[in-house]
C-alpha cells in the first residue's frame, strides 16, 4: 500500500536524523510533511471519519503517521494549535491506546520543540484511560503523575498552583484503597516530599495558609507511604509548632 510506504519513509527519515544526530533542514522538514500530507489524503479519501481508519490501516501505522506529523510540525512556527488538534483526533480514535498517548505526552514535554498543551492533554488523557482499566499499570500511572507535576513546575508555580495541587490530590485519591506498595513506593515518597517542600515559597512570602495547605498535602501523602514513619513524625511536629507560632503571632 502506497500510503504505508509514505508513512514508513518519513519515519525512517526522522529515525535516521536521530541516529546521526543531524538536524533536518527546514526544506527537508517541509518535504517530509509533504509526503505525510499525501498519505493523509489517501487515508481520508478512503474514509471521511478518522475513527474508521483502523479498517483501512493497522493501528500502529496510524500512530506512526500521527507521531511523525506531530514531530515534524513541532519544528515549524505557529503550528501549536494544529498539533493539539492532530493529537485530539488521534486520541478519540479506536486506534489509540494508553502507550501511544504516553509516548506522545513524554515527547511533547521535552526538547526544544516541546508543546505544553499537547503534553498536558496526552498525559491527562492517558492517565484517565489507565485508571479506567480493571487492573491499572501503576508504574505508568506514577510516571504520568510525576510528569504532570513537573510540567506545572516548569511553566511557573504562580500560575499553575491550583492545577499542581489538584494533581497531588489526584495522586492521593489513587493511593487510597491500594495495597501497600501497589503504587511505586519511591514515586509516592517523591510526591510527599515535593508537596512538603512547596511550602517553602509561601512561607517566605508570608502566605501562611498556602504554606499549611502544602504541608498538609505532604503529610497526607506520607501517611500512605510505607517506610515514612520518621518523616511523618517530623512533619506532624513541625506543623504543630507552625500552628502554635501562628496562633501566638
UniProtKB/TrEMBL annotation:
GO biological-process terms attached to the record: regulation of synaptonemal complex assembly
Protein name: Putative ovule protein
Organism: Solanum chacoense (Chaco potato)
Amino acid at each position: 500500500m502506497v500510503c504505508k510506504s509514505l508513512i514508513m519513509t518519513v519515519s525512517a527519515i526522522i529515525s535516521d536524523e536521530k541516529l546521526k544526530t543531524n538536524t533536518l533542514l527546514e526544506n527537508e522538514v517541509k518535504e517530509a510533511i509533504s509526503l505525510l500530507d499525501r498519505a493523509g489524503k489517501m487515508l481520508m479519501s478512503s474514509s471521511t471519519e478518522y475513527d474508521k481508519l483502523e479498517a483501512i490501516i493497522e493501528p500502529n501505522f496510524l500512530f506512526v503517521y500521527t507521531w511523525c506529523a506531530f514531530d515534524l510540525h513541532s519544528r515549524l512556527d505557529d503550528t501549536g494549535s494544529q498539533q493539539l488538534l492532530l493529537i485530539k483526533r488521534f486520541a478519540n480514535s479506536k486506534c489509540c491506546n494508553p502507550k501511544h498517548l504516553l509516548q506522545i505526552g513524554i515527547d511533547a514535554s521535552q526538547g526544544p520543540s516541546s508543546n505544553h498543551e499537547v503534553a498536558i492533554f496526552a498525559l491527562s488523557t492517558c492517565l484517565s484511560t489507565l485508571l479506567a482499566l480493571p487492573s491499572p499499570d501503576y508504574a505508568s500511572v506514577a510516571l504520568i503523575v510525576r510528569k504532570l507535576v513537573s510540567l506545572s513546575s516548569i511553566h511557573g508555580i504562580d500560575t499553575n498552583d491550583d492545577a499542581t495541587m489538584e494533581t497531588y490530590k489526584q495522586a492521593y485519591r489513587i493511593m487510597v484503597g491500594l495495597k501497600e506498595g501497589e503504587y511505586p513506593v519511591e514515586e509516592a515518597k517523591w510526591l510527599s516530599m515535593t508537596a512538603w517542600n512547596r511550602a517553602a515559597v509561601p512561607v517566605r512570602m508570608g502566605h501562611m495558609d498556602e504554606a499549611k495547605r502544602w504541608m498538609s498535602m505532604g503529610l497526607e501523602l506520607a501517611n500512605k507511604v510505607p517506610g515514612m514513619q520518621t518523616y511523618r513524625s517530623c512533619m506532624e511536629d513541625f506543623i504543630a509548632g507552625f500552628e502554635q507560632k501562628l496562633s501566638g503571632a
